[in-house]
Design goal:
The protein is α/β, with parallel strands linked by helices and 482 residues long. The protein has helices at residues 4-10, 33-43, 54-64, 69-78, 86-95, 98-113, 149-159, 220-230, 247-258, 292-300, 315-326, 341-349, 354-360, 385-390, 432-439, 444-453, 459-468, 474-480; strands at 12-19, 22-27, 46-51, 116-123, 127-134, 137-145, 171-179, 182-193, 196-205, 235-240, 265-269, 280-283, 306-309, 330-335, 361-373, 379-381, 404-406, 418-429. Helix 4 (69-78) crosses helix 6 (98-113), helix 6 (98-113) packs across helix 7 (149-159) and helix 12 (341-349) runs antiparallel to helix 16 (444-453).
């Protein structure tokens, strides 16, 4: 009854019929009598205005009208291919039928609107299940009839320029779109399963990367420790954690702080997720022989001040990165370990001499991403001392009747109780004592005890601090930190 263009102009959205003659309309400005008169004439009903926030109104308008013309045009533009064989031409015809196109467009657009990081298309025995990863947790969104499975998956593969006739091996591709005026880069990965190909779309919103370290969730103490290290002229800084824990975002935010016209900053990444102005970014290409190791060698011949290596995966890359840090360069990189002290022993296991590691590394930071409680609906409660003890809270908070918050759920957070994420950090400065332990090949546990004695807050302690501040919940910290 109210077109999207008009709804956006007036900041108004119809909610329900109060009676057979009256329509309840949520408005950003319910005192706008001209808008109310226009809506009355357009709908033929009396209008009862109600006030609502601009965020809620425009989010709801986007959800209802998420299949805009611009999205459809952008996605259709990706699918202009010439058929090479009759069979492929037939599949492409199916994949470009209006219902299939509309469905895929709608799912991608909804994923962008909901802030999903990944879209999963999972073939099951009797249906194709679509799940979104929102704030690090998977949610089932819809199921598609089995008869449409081949068309939907082929449509995505056509858009990503993937061989649609090949279903036996994993394939990778990418799609570049503009959704709602925002440039979105989509990485596509297909994998054969017993019921058909599973396809995962990783959404990278180029405009949304947080480039301010304070916005990532650092406590003031942790940020001071981290900043003291990356402001040094040389040395290595490692960020560790599992896949999807925000390591790349932290490195990008750090580079943004360090970026200036006086410095030559070069990165080698797989893939280049976000393009940063003033920074030279290199995409590795395994087929052409451009690996992390060969890319890093080339960087060191290009007179860099600061080097960022997307990930240390092997001994060769680790060796070059450590040597670069020892010869006057600031090196930033990521490593897959559970905590900060574990990174030192991991490098030793990879074959790097402990005395080199100890001399080169300035700081190691482990991190996780926890969901933030929805500020609109979080509810206070007083936990029992037993619950606090089981979750590792410090002894000094016992018996003080502290107030914590837990998830409740409301329409604004899709009834999950959480909206957005923040980092949990463990910042370990490599001191002389830790250098000695590294050279002596001591265990990660021993290194951790010394680091905590020198002021390092563990991941759990930083998480508990954020629970006490009311930013996240006890259950969420238990979920992300063992």
């Amino acid at each position: 009854m109210i077109p999207e263009k008009l709804a956006r102009r007036y900041g108004a959205i119809p909610i329900k019929f109060l009676d057979e003659n009256t329509l309840l309309v949520a408005m950003v400005d319910p005192t706008n009598v001209f808008a109310i008169d226009d809506l009355r004439m357009m709908t033929g009903y009396d209008i009862k205005p109600a006030i609502s926030s601009a965020e809620d109104v425009f989010n709801q308008i986007s959800k209802i009208h998420r299949l805009g013309d611009s999205v459809a045009e952008d996605i259709d533009a990706e699918a202009e291919f010439s058929a090479e064989t009759t069979m492929e031409a037939d599949i492409r015809d199916v994949a470009s039928e209006a219902p299939i196109v509309k469905l895929v467009n709608g799912v991608i657009s909804q994923g962008v609107e909901d802030g999903a990081s990944d879209l999963h298309f999972e073939p099951q025995e009797k249906e194709l299940v679509v799940r979104f990863r929102i704030d690090g947790v998977l949610h089932e969104i819809m199921s598609v009839p089995k008869r449409m499975q081949a068309g939907v998956l082929s449509r995505i593969k056509v858009m990503a320029d993937i061989d649609i006739a090949e279903r036996r091996i994993p394939q990778d591709g990418r799609i570049g779109l503009t959704v709602g005026g925002k440039p979105i880069d989509i990485r596509v990965a297909s994998m054969p399963t017993v019921y058909g190909e599973k396809i995962v779309l990783r959404l990278l919103d180029k405009s949304s990367i947080m480039l301010n370290l304070m916005d990532l969730g650092f406590s003031e103490r942790a940020l001071k420790r981290f900043e003291k290290s990356f402001r040094k002229p040389y040395g290595a800084i490692l960020v560790t954690g599992p896949t999807g824990s925000g390591k790349s975002t932290t490195l990008y935010a750090t580079l943004n702080v360090l970026n200036s016209k006086e410095k030559n900053i070069i990165t080698v990444e797989d893939p280049v997720e976000y393009r940063l102005s003033g920074i030279n970014q290199t995409q590795i290409n395994m087929k052409a022989g451009l690996t992390f190791a060969s890319g890093l060698r080339a960087i060191l011949r290009s007179d860099p001040d600061i080097v960022m290596v997307g990930e240390i995966r092997d001994k060769e890359t680790a060796q070059i990165a450590i040597e670069a840090a020892l010869t006057g360069h600031m090196v930033l990189s990521t490593l897959h370990t559970n905590d900060a002290p574990g990174a030192l022993t991991r490098l030793t296991e990879m074959g790097i001499e402990p005395f080199l590691t100890a001399s080169a590394i300035e700081c190691i930071m482990a991190q996780r991403l926890a969901r933030k409680l929805c500020s609109n609906c979080k509810e206070p409660y007083q936990p029992t001392d037993e619950a606090l003890r089981q979750n590792g809270f410090p002894q000094e908070v016992m018996g003080k009747n502290i107030t914590l918050y837990r998830a409740a759920g409301c329409p604004r957070c899709n009834n999950t109780g959480y909206k957005g994420r923040l980092g949990i950090y463990e910042v370990m400065i490599v001191s002389e004592a830790i250098e000695r332990l590294t050279v002596e090949r001591k265990s990660a546990d021993e290194i951790s005890r010394v680091a905590q004695a020198e002021g390092m807050l563990s991941l759990r302690e930083d998480g508990i601090d954020k629970v006490i501040k009311g930013v996240t919940s006890m259950e969420e910290i238990a979920r992300v930190i063992i």
